[in-house]
Amino acid sequence: MNLASRFASVLRGRTAVIGAPYLWLLVFFLLPFLILVKYSVAEMEAVQPKDLIQFKDGLLQLTIKLSNYVFITQDELYYKTYLSSLKYAGATTFFCLLIGYPFAYFMARAKATIQPALLMLVMLPFWTSFLLRVYAWKGLLSNDGWVADLIIGAGLDQVLAALGIISTPGKLMNTPFSLVLGMTYTYLPFMILPLYGNLSKMDLRLLEAALDLGATPWTAFWTITVPLSKAGIIAGSMLVFIPCVGEFVIPELLGGPETLMTGRVMWDEFFSNNDWPLASTLAVVMILLIIVPLALFNKYQAEAQERRT
Amino acid sequence: MGPPAADAFLRIEGLTKEFDGYKAVNNVSLDIAKGEIFALLGSSGCGKSTLLRMLAGFEEPTAGRIVLDGQDLAHVPPYKVPINMMFQSYALFPHLTVWDNIAFGLKREGMPAAGIEERVEAMLKLVQLTKFAKRKPHQLSGGQQQRVALARSLAKRPQLLLLDEPLGALDKKLREETQIELVNIIEQVGVTCVMVTHDQEEAMTMASRIAVMSEGRFLQVGAPSDIYETPATRFVADFIGNVNLMDGTLDVDAEAHCEIGCADVRHYVGHGITGTRGMPVTVALRPEKIQLTRAAPKDTGFNAVRGTIREMSYFGSFTVYQLVLASGAKLKVSQANIERLRENPLTWGDEVWAHWDAWSQVVLTQ
Question: What is the pTM of this model?
Answer without folding.
Answer: 0.81
